[in-house]
Specification:
This protein has 341 residues and is of the alpha/beta class. Strands 2-3-5-6-7-8-10 form a seven-stranded mixed sheet, with helices on one face. Strands 12-13-14-16-15 form a five-stranded mixed barrel. It is globular and about 60 Å long. Bound molecules: iron/sulfur cluster. Iron/sulfur cluster (SF4) binds next to loops.
């Protein structure tokens, strides 16, 4: 059930929380020219399939725009690449982020950032806001949509009403700007099969009106079940080989480009933003505060790295503890640890 009135913790210069290392806040790097930036953890929807369980957190977080920019600049320096894409993809909804204008304008002042894209459910967009985004320098909006039936959309998104006609108008408004539009449905096999077919028909129509790749893209995603995410009832997870086979057939039938890979987004390898610790290694960290969940804590490894510590035993802020890293990924600079002897 959706939680209400949870505290929103604002992370800025005073709190000294590094913005490398956490999955839900700050900067996530997978060793490519794309930096995924997560400024906020609140959402206006409560999707039944939400893989990050937004709306269930006991505490929410926001990274102040100036502070976030400081860390993005650090990451950009490490990457040494002239074609960085900053993809704003929060564990929540980007248009609930009060610092958005400051953040985007700040990003536009960093010469090595070539592309600014964002992920959204699109429901908070208006024609005025779309014009502003264009003038601030946003290049692409990725918008989720899982059906062309309003009731079904409301059901998947866990809300009473969902204004689909307004969202379709939003698509038109975006297409009339210099920004690109990517519609990103999740295919819950066995649940929204008809919805996916209808969205493909809509894309074929837009294609025939002259909105072609890359101005208008359809990026169908395979539904995946995550341990800590919400699950949609009756939906089946499909092997990627099966998923791509079906997309290939649909491509042949419709003439649309549906199988998207790194090359389609000019994604290439760069220097990674990488922690110095590895999986199973032990180290001392300083607990900073509680995280989103009861058993989750934010700790600091060093001046650059935050660590998500999972502990059933309550931990105190400023406590120094020994932890063992259970996750430390080179491609996805996340640090997760548990208390250790
Ligand atoms: S819009 Fe995205 S973040 Fe928000 S609940 Fe739905 S899936 Fe989760």
């Amino acid at each position: 059930m959706r939680k209400t009135a949870t505290p929103l913790i604002e992370i800025g210069d005073q709190l000294h929380v590094p913005l490398f290392g956490l999955d839900f806040l700050g900067i996530l790097d997978r060793g490519t020219n794309v930096l995924e930036v997560k400024p906020i953890t609140i959402c206006n929807l409560y999707c039944k399939y939400c893989f990050v369980s937004a709306g269930d957190y006991r505490r929410n977080f926001l990274a102040e725009p100036e502070y976030l920019l400081k860390w993005i600049k650090k990451a950009v320096e490490i990457k040494q690449d002239d074609a960085i894409e900053v993809h704003l993809a929060p564990y929540g909804e980007i248009f609930l982020y009060s610092g958005l204008e400051k953040l985007i304008k700040g990003l536009r002042n960093i010469p090595k950032i070539a592309t600014i894209s964002m992920q959204t459910n699109g429901l908070l967009l208006s024609s005025t806001l779309i014009q502003k985004l264009e003038s601030w320098g946003v290049n692409r909006l990725n918008i989720s949509l899982n059906s062309m039936d309003e009731q079904a959309c409301a059901n998947y998104c866990g809300v009473k009403s969902y204004n689909l006609s307004r969202l379709l108008q939003t698509f038109e408004d975006i297409l009339s700007t210099n920004m690109d539009l990517l519609i990103a449905p999740v295919w819950f096999k066995g649940v929204n099969d008809q919805g996916i077919e209808d969205i493909i028909s809509y894309a074929v129509k837009k294609h025939s009106e002259g909105y072609e790749w890359p101005k208008f893209r359809l990026g169908i995603q395979n539904y995946l079940v995550y341990k800590t995410g919400r699950k949609i009832h009756r939906a089946k997870m499909r092997e990627f080989s099966y998923f791509y086979r079906v997309l290939h057939k649909m491509e042949q039938k419709t003439g649309l480009k549906l199988k998207l890979g790194p090359d389609d987004f000019d994604i290439h390898k760069t220097f990674p933003v990488m922690p110095s610790v590895k999986r199973n290694q032990k180290a001392k960290v300083k607990v900073l505060m509680q995280g989103r969940w009861k058993n989750e804590y934010i700790a600091q490894l060093d001046e650059n790295w935050a660590v998500k510590v999972l502990s059933k035993v309550p931990l105190q802020s400023q406590q120094n503890i020994q932890v063992k890293f259970i996750k430390s990924l080179l491609h996805g600079n996340l640090l997760t640890a548990i208390p250790s002897d």
